[in-house]
Design goal:
Blueprint lengths: L2 H16 L6 H10 L4 H26 L12 H14 L13 H10 L4 H26 L1
Length: 144
């Protein structure tokens, strides 16, 4: 596989994993690092893809949140209500949990619904997602 294809696959997996579609970007990052690709580059590619995927969620919440009661809305009402409770309780700082499975993606949608300013959203989500990927890369290197 060419280097570009590996990084494109990593980016795409990380992007999809950040949206409301289930995917395992951590496993792809770990495989990339274990295969000998530079960890800093792999973390950067995965992080950019994952943060951009979260921005898609923010846009979804920002512009179609009014349709949340429709059957086609991609977040179940129960998950959205739980994330909204976290967000109302802890405010923008709850975005530091955007990396957490199950609650992280709905939190990023709620941030859009509640009109969190995009620059602060991107900053907090980037801190959370980069931190998680750094841990995965360091753990992978320790195991290899």
């Amino acid at each position: 596989m060419t280097e570009l294809a590996v990084y494109a696959g990593l980016f795409l997996t990380a992007f999809v994993a950040a949206t409301l579609v289930p995917a395992q970007s951590e496993a792809v990052l770990a495989a990339t690092v274990a295969a000998g690709y530079p960890p800093v580059t792999a973390v950067a590619v995965a992080s950019v893809g994952n943060v951009l995927g979260s921005v898609v969620n923010w846009v979804l919440g920002r512009f179609i949140g009014r349709f949340r009661d429709r059957p086609w809305f991609p977040v179940r009402e129960q998950a959205l209500a739980r994330a909204e409770g976290w967000y109302r309780r802890f405010g923008k700082w709850s975005l530091l949990l955007s990396w957490v499975p199950i609650i992280g993606d709905p939190l990023t949608v709620v941030a859009g619904v509640l009109r969190e300013p995009l620059p602060m959203f991107v900053l907090l989500v980037a801190i959370a997602k980069v931190g998680r990927y750094v841990v995965v890369a360091v753990a992978t290197q320790g195991l290899v």
